[in-house]
Design brief:
Layout lengths: L1 E4 L12 E7 L5 H15 L4 H5 L14 E7 L2 E15 L2 E13 L7 H16 L3 E6 L4 H9 L5 E11 L10 E12 L12 E7 L2
Enzyme class: transferase
Pfam family, one: NodA
Main location: cytoplasm
Length: 210
Amino acid sequence: MNIAISSSKGVLSRRSQVRWRLCWENELQLADHTELSTFFRKTYEPAGAFNGKLFEGNRSWARARPELRAMGYDARGVAAHLGLLRRFIKVGGVDLLVAELGLYGVCPDLEGLGISHSIRVMYPVLHQLGVPFAFGTVRPALQNHIARLLGRQALATIVPGTRVRSTQPDVYLDLPPTHVEDVLVVVLPISRPMSDWPTGTIIDRNGPEL
């Protein structure tokens, strides 16, 4: 499925439209994985060379592998990406089905496109899947940025003061098997209200981060 979204004022340097493609993982071809691998290395390496290692060998995922992807394309190829994976997490001891959103990336000169565009493309799919909540994590330093992008549309709620425990990616077998992060938890109520989100200061993914 292709969805056309016109470029916003902050994205006019490309002078193009970004077209979104929603794609299940089994529908991707080797050429897709190769292009995505290159995109992620270029997107993630500026934050640290080790980030790029996760995408070596045409690998188009970093930790857990998504089941559905929203991919934005412009004239140069892949311009933005957001992955989705349904999973059960444990919130304060309560098992909860969520659609985890992650593996977000955008080309530097398209930063104005914003994560809100990616979520807007994914939002109808979340309703079709019938999940209670969508869930993602961001670094605390991005709280104001995320609140500004998502708050205007009241799509999500930021849950502060929560730590998330995950397993290490398989490329880091020399590290401890799990790690705990102090992050901001972002929750999108889908088929259940935000008041049904369990209370708790620890979330267990029982698996690797998306």
